[in-house]
């Protein structure tokens, strides 16, 4: 070896000490040992009846949840305010440990998946007191819940509250009673960890892939520079613990939410208030029309996160298993009708694709036409091949108009093979490929 080479090699090692480490991708932590057992218990004994449809009324949710959160089962319930329309806002607490965890759901009224899972979690905590996981959580954590932050929105199954305000853009102004109640409870509890539970658009893809995001995670930034301090590092590590639970179920369909700091949003401001905050966004699983599969995954993810917090097992989990998650990518439309011939009486026929968005996306109800023309580069969650068929409008046809048209074998619309009357009729078969 030439005499000059050794110092050069040493210098290289000093400059890039982690070269070999950086090239190895860290292995996913094993899912918790209890996962299979809890999964089976969930199906047999934890999924609470009465929440089979995701647009339940808030009163219906409390009718189901309040008996589960009884004093005799270790819970305490207090009213902490009223919504714009006078619906009760409640704080539910459980456990006697020193690590305080605060979970709130359905700040957006039409994002109910986590609320369903919280009812299941109440049942697990209250009815299985001797389960080792329940014992650990009781001894080491205090859990604080504010379910259905926006009950007026939930009653209408709409995002905003009864004043038309997006409660999740009210974290700074605190103009709504719902936002104030959430803020004041957080200030009173001064939790160590926070869980901000939402649903996102079911059309969102994972990164640049064609796969729909089932669940997206975020450890929200607490400043514009998106720095990672010790508190945010904990949130990232708990997110990795959640990922380890979800990987066996939805590998490749887990994404990361954009971490741009938003000074009006509760997650970001809770993070800035010194709480290790984790956002869980339930997206969609095709065919899971009432998000009942996602409900179970929420339950299991929360069980995994809470256990990791109780035991401290999140500490040191590799951040790259969070940072390497692809971000939420493009959002696909709901339905594309491709290659049909548009036949409007008195107008020349035209070969077009039609893109439809539904107000109730999974159920394909209340559709609206969002684009017409050559839409080859605009994919949708579902495509119908209309080549060889005529698109015959049954109401005013145009962009932004309600989606009312038939697919017919003739331009007059006599020999109809498929109907879209705002809603898709689930019983109506998709036209067969010709
Ligand atoms: Zn939301």
Structural summary, described in words:
With 434 residues, the protein is an alpha/beta fold. It has two domains: 35-330, 3-Layer(aba) Sandwich (Aminopeptidase); 332-424, Roll (Urease, subunit C, domain 1), CATH 2.30.40. 31% of the residues lie in helices and 25% in strands. The strands form three sheets. It has an eight-stranded mixed beta sheet with strand order 1-2-4-3-5-9-7-8, sandwiched between helices. Strands 11, 12, 13, 14, 15, 16, 17 and 18 form an eight-stranded mixed beta sheet that branches. Strand 12 and strand 13 (365-373) form a beta hairpin. Mean pLDDT is 94; it is low at 1-7 and 9-22. Zinc ion binds next to loops.
């Amino acid at each position: 070896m030439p005499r000059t080479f050794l110092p050069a090699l040493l210098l290289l090692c000093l400059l890039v000490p982690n070269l070999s480490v950086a090239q190895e991708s860290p292995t996913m932590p094993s899912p918790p040992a209890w996962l299979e057992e809890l999964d089976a218990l969930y199906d047999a004994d934890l999924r609470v009846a009465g929440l089979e449809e995701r647009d339940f009324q808030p009163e219906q949710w409390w009718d189901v949840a309040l008996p589960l959160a009884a004093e005799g089962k270790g819970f305490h319930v207090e009213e902490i305010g009223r919504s714009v329309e006078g619906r009760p806002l409640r704080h539910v607490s459980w456990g006697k440990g020193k690590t305080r965890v605060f979970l709130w759901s359905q700040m957006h009224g039409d994002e109910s998946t986590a609320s369903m899972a919280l009812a299941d979690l109440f049942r697990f905590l209250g009815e299985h007191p001797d389960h080792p996981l329940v014992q650990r959580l009781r001894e080491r954590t205090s859990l604080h819940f504010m379910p259905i932050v926006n009950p007026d929105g939930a009653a209408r199954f709409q995002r905003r509250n009864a004043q038309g305000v997006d409660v999740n853009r009210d974290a700074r102004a605190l103009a709504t009673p719902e936002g104030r109640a959430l803020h004041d409870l957080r200030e009173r509890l001064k939790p160590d960890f926070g869980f901000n539970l939402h649903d996102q658009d079911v059309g969102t893809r994972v990164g640049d892939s064609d796969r729909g995001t089932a669940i997206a995670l975020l450890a929200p930034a607490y400043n514009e520079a998106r720095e990672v301090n010790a508190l945010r590092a904990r949130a990232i590590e708990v997110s990795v613990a959640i990922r380890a639970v979800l990987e066996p179920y939805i590998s490749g369909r887990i994404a990361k939410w954009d971490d741009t700091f938003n000074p009006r949003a509760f997650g970001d401001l809770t993070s800035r208030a010194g709480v290790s905050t984790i956002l869980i966004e339930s997206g969609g699983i095709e065919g899971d029309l009432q998000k009942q599969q996602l409900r179970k995954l929420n339950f299991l993810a929360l069980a995994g996160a809470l256990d990791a917090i109780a035991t401290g097992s999140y500490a040191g989990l590799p951040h790259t298993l969070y940072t390497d998650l692809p971000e939420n990518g493009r959002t696909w439309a709901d339905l594309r009708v491709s290659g049909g011939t548009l036949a409007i009486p008195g107008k020349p026929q035209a070969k077009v694709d039609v893109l439809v968005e539904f107000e109730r996306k999974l159920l394909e109800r209340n559709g609206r036409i969002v684009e017409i023309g050559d839409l080859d580069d605009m994919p949708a969650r579902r495509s119908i091949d209309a080549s060889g068929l005529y698109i015959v409008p049954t109401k005013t046809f145009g962009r932004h108009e309600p989606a009312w048209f038939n697919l017919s074998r003739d331009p007059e619309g006599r020999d109809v093979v498929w109907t879209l009357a705002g809603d898709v009729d689930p019983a109506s078969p998709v036209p067969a490929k010709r």
